[in-house]
Every structure is written in structure tokens, then in C-alpha cells.
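Researcher: I'm preparing a figure for a lab meeting and need a structural model of a single chain. I don't have an experimental structure, so a prediction will have to do for now. The sequence is pasted below. Please return the structure as C-alpha cells so I can convert it later.
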Amino acid sequence: MGRLASIGAWWDGLEAPLRRLPRGAALAVLVLTLLACLWSAQATTAYVAADQHRAATRPLKEDEGDYKLYQRTLSRMRAGEGYYAAAESEQRAHGYPTRPFVTVRTPTMAWLALTLGLPALKIVAILLLLANVAAWVVALEGRSWLVERAAAALALGVFGVLAFFPLVGLTHEMFAGLLLSLALALHRPHRWWPSLLLAGMALAIREMALPFVLLWGAFALDARRWRESLGLALLLAAFAAGMAVHAHFVALHRLPGDLVSDGWEGMLGLANFIGPLVTTTLVGALPGWLAGPLALLPLLGWAAVRGRLGLFALLWSAGYMVLLSVFARPDNFYWVLLVLPAYGIGIVFVPRALADLLAAALRRGRPLARSGG
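Model: Understood. Here is the structure written out cell by cell.
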């Protein structure tokens, strides 16, 4: 615990984290960044070409795909059928697994779509995106220039464009990502409960929001914010109870011959993060040689932002990079939406990151001492 606390306090006190790297480390990061950009340009071009080839050679049939599955489930619910009976029957009929229980989505978005309708959920998604813009502009005050905050607002639109998708109400990960991004922007040490509510909503929609909450818990314990830690512990307990209920109802409607998931051992590498990010955002409108680096560089940008906000965004984004690179299958591409649109803000700080790295690389002597604030 002492080691964790010292790391948190150390980063929080750095005015410009990358500028304080030793000269050799800064040079290494610059070289790795250049190599990563060159690789990402090629990898993205290949990913998009392969995606287009699959779409051309094996187009989805009229009744295929996740959205069709969710729409059929919703239609059966409108006819009076319960969620679990409808969802599992549809998954069984169209070759989707129901084992383990997480292969069946929690009913939250289906219930919301049934109650409010998909057009209303699209409006909610757009309002969440606009709330993100407002919250992030405020959150970045004191640690960014006005031009950076304006660019951050634009980046949120570029990386959160899926909020305008007509079927966003059936896109669990996008809704969860919007909620988590807003939770991060709104967090204050003295006012953390709005973020807790937003994170709880994200967990109710998609259980894969859990890493965000676990990381937040580590930060709260690191800072010895005991009330905040207790609130997070209660949220995790409620989440565990909710998932147990979900697992019970999935098992209740499961049949002996139901399919089992292929598992999550994709081992597809970093291309399985940047490729889906490009194809689900406006970055995809750019040629692959430019889109790839723009999809990868936000991580470097976040490393240049001091304080809890920058370190949290850096670790959160890096964590999902690992998840998609190691565990996700090609058809799990939508996991990337869980860090959007906040991840994209990092692109705004790339010039700052490069300037700090160059300053550190050209500096002679020992690295700068730790700042007091």
C-alpha cells in the first residue's frame, strides 16, 4: 500500500510528467512513438481493407447481426414476452451462445428501449455527449490552454459520433462509455457521488465497465478517501448482487443444448484496438496512414496531463488496450466503445507530450526534481 500511495503522490505532484523523464527514457519513448505510428498506419490500412473485404464477400443476411438480434428481442418484449425468455430464445435460434451467463446482456437497455423507445434513447445519448463536452471543458480548466479545451470539445464529437447513430439505444457499450467518460470528467475529491451514480448506471448497462470502477477504487484507497472508498465498495457489492440475479435468470431459461461461448483468448494484438476505434469514429473518414496514428496517439497525450485526471485516463485507456489486444475476438470490436469519447481527448495533448519529450531528450544532466504542487 505504501508503494501505491507513493506512486499516486509522485504523479500528482508533477507539473509535466513526460518532461521529467531521464534523457535516455525520453529518447526511447520518442523512438517507440515514431515506430508505433509507422506500424499503426500500416496496421489500420490492413484492418480496414480486411473489414471491407469481409463485408463484400460475406454480407450479413437480413436477419443476421447483433442489432437484428436485439431488435427481435425488443419486438417480442413489446408483444408481452419477458426479457430473458425472448433474449435466450433468439440467441438459441440464431447460433448465439448462452453460456456463460455474460453472453446474455443485462436487461437494462432492453427495458429502457421498451419504455422510452429508440428515438428517445438517441436523444439521451446526444444529451450525454453534450454533457461530456461541458463537463470536460470545465474539468480541463487550470491544466490546459483555451485552444486545448476547444480542441477537446471537437475531439469528443469526433470520437463520440456514434451517439447520433439511430440504433445507439441498442449499443450497450456506447452508452456505458458516455456515462464513464462523464463520470471521470465530473469527479472531484469533495463531490464524488455524481460520478458514483454514473458509474453505477454504466455497470447496470454493461458489466465490462467494472475495470473503471476497480481503478477508481485503487485511486480512492491510494488517496485515503475512506468515504469514497466505502461508496465504491457498496457499489461493487450491489453490482455483484445484480450479476448474481442476472446469472440466475439466464440459467432459468437456458436449455441443455445451448451453445457455449468460444471464450475470450483472441490474442490479436494492438491492431484489435486501433482498428475498431477507427471504424467506429469519424477518424475512419481519414486515410489509413493518418487514421492509425490518430487512433494510437491519444494514449501519449494523456501521459502528458498531470494529476489524477491524466493518470486515471492513461491507465483506464491502457487497460482497455490490453483487454482488446489480448482477450477480445474480432467480433468483440465494440469493447473499444467503453473508453469513448474520453480517450479521444488525449489527441489534444500530443503536441504538449512531444514538446515535453523533446525537452527531456535534449536536456543535459539529471532529470528535473519533483515539483511541489
